Structures are given as C-alpha cells and as structure tokens.
From TrEMBL:
Top-rank lineage group of the source organism: Bacteria
Organism: Paenibacillus nuruki
Pfam families: ABC2_membrane_6
Regions that span the bilayer: 26-51, 63-85, 106-131, 143-166, 200-223, 229-250
Keyword match Transmembrane helix: yes
The entry's keywords: Membrane, Transmembrane, Transmembrane helix
InterPro entries linked to this entry: ABC-2_transporter-like (IPR010390)
Protein name: ABC transporter permease protein
The keyword Ligase is assigned to this record: no
C-alpha cells in the first residue's frame, strides 16, 4: 500500500510540474469545466421556471442532488480517466510499456491519466449541497459527514466499475465502439429524480447501469426521502459489486492482449 501511495504522490508532483510550465492550459481547462457545470445548473433553473416540482422533488432538492452528483464524478474524472484508453494504449501500443512495469497495469493507467482540476467540480458540488441544504432547512447531523464519505466512495466505485468494464471491450476490438460517449450521456440521468422515468428506465438505472446510485439514491438519504432511503444504503454495496466486476472484465481482457505487433 505504501508503494502505491508513493506512486500517486510522484504522479501528482509530475503533473504539478507540467502544469506550472503550461499554466494557460491549466486555467483554460478549469474555466471550461466551471462553465460546463454552470450550464447544467442553469438548465435545472430553466426547467423549474416552468414547473414547481419534478418527479415529486422541488427545485432546491434537485439542485442538492446535482451537487452530490458532482462529487463522485469529480473524483472519478480525476483518478480514473479512461476516456482515450483504446486509441492510446491499444491502437498506439502503449499497453506494451505498461505491462513491463511491476505495479498493477490498471493502476498505472489510472495514474498516467490523473486530472486534478476535475476535483474542483467535487468541491463545487460540496458547496452546492450546503447551499441548497440551507435552502431546504437541512440540519447537519453527526452522521451526515461519515455517511457522505461512504456514499461518495460507493458512487465513485460504481463509475470506476462501469467504465472499466466498457474499456475492457478494447481488448476484444481495435476499432472504436462509441459506447463510452453514449454511456456518458446515460450517466446524467442519475442526477434527476428517478421517478420521472418509466419503469424500464428505472430498472436500467438501478440494477443494470446503476447510475441512480451516483446521484438521486444516495442524495435522497440526506434529503430524508423515506421511499429511497433503503436504496441509498445499497450504494456502497453496488460500488463493491461493480468495481469487482470491472476488475474481472479487465483481467480477462489483459489475458487476451497480444501486444501491438502481434
């Protein structure tokens, strides 16, 4: 464990050195991310300009859910960025280099794609939760912080598991599948009340592609929504299950990998 933590620190230092050299790129990335998050918030406000509730949730509650949604997504984007895996590691053959090193190959790929500016989204998510929670009159209780940590870790593991499974498809096909951009669009469904979708979509977002556990379900725990509290506590379990599935798919794909020249 000490060895892996040391690797994380070294990669963070290397990232900082690179960004200090290209500061303009860093700030462009940060500002772009902030504008993107602001656009999503504005969309929520526009929706509620035409309705009082959405699936039984008020504007402040939906904003609260969105704030929670931003926290695990920021962590995932920072530490588990697999967006260009196929092109970089399979097509260009960089996976060969990864496999010659002692650290676990998936962990190395996580490190090589660190994106610390994404953590700004997580911090903004916390601010949004506190702001909207104040609007809702939510009182901060002793168990809220530890519960939030557990829920966020579970949600982050769900992201990691799902995208690791999808990334593993690259070991079976050299051509881009286009499925990851599609999944990116589907994941946004988790930041809205699941009650606005039909039964089939609810099942899909709960048990098959469980993006409801990266937004609405865990956030409902702090909103004290009795109809969803039981599902909220399943979040860490779903995180462990899908992270384990992700590792199994990844290890299976690695066994099929034959190198760039074969």
């Amino acid at each position: 464990m000490k060895y892996y933590l040391g690797l994380v620190w070294e990669y963070f230092l290397n990232y900082a050195k690179t960004r200090l050299t290209y500061r303009a790129d860093f700030w462009v990335e940060v500002i772009s991310d902030l504008l993107f998050q602001a656009t999503n918030l504005i969309f929520i406000f526009v929706v509620f300009a035409h309705t009082d509730t959405l699936g039984g949730f008020t504007e402040a509650e939906v904003v609260f859910v969105y704030g929670y949604f931003m926290i695990p997504y920021g962590l995932y984007s920072c530490f588990v960025n697999l967006w260009n895996f196929g092109d970089r590691y399979i097509v260009k053959g960089e996976m060969d280099r990864i496999l010659t090193r002692p650290a676990h190959n998936l962990f190395q790929i996580f490190l090589e794609n660190l994106d610390p500016p994404s953590l700004i989204g997580s911090f903004i998510g916390v601010i949004i939760m506190f702001w909207s929670g104040g609007q809702l009159g939510i009182e901060l209780l002793w168990w809220h912080i530890p519960a939030l940590i557990v829920m966020v870790l579970g949600s982050t593991l769900i992201y990691t598991g799902i995208y690791t499974i999808l990334t593993s498809i690259s070991f079976y096909s050299d051509s881009p599948t286009g499925i990851i951009p599609l999944m990116y669009n589907i994941q946004t469904y988790g930041r809205y009340p699941i009650t606005i979708y039909n039964r089939i979509i609810q099942i899909l977002l709960t048990w098959i592609l469980p993006f409801a556990f990266v937004g609405i379900y865990p956030a409902a725990l702090f909103l004290d929504r009795p109809e969803m509290i039981r599902m909220a506590w399943i979040t860490p379990v779903m995180g462990i299950v899908f992270f384990t599935l992700g590792l199994l798919f990844w290890n299976g794909g690695i066994k099929r990998y034959r190198g760039a020249g074969s």
